[in-house]
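User: Hey, quick favor. My workstation is busy. Could you predict this chain's structure for me?
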Amino acid sequence: MGSNALAVFCIAIGLLIILGRGPLIFVPERTMELYRRLLSTDPMVRAVGLCVGALGAGLALLAKGDGETVALGLVLAAVGLMLIVFPGPYRRLATSVLDFARDSIHSTVIRAVGLLAVGIGAFLVHLGFRLL
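Assistant: No problem, here it is.
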């Protein structure tokens, strides 16, 4: 069960990356503004932290003794916990990074980052299907 569960987890994470970063390829300015609105309040940062923490805990539990995968899951769970407990500093950091990206980075670079992220997500989906 562990291998199949890990495969499904890889597929789900890959699809989330593709869905979350794919719009950067086509409409980078509007996507960055959406990210900024999603991270503009402490409750929204806590919700993101809850999702990240849950994904990390799931990864750590499904790894079945694979040291690196368990460590990655625990790091994600710790990051999620920090986002839940201390949302203010992370909200300010996220909004300043997004403001910097909007003001200083050309949209072509943002599109390239989106394309790279979609490639990573596609690799995770491919890896998940290979593990099945």
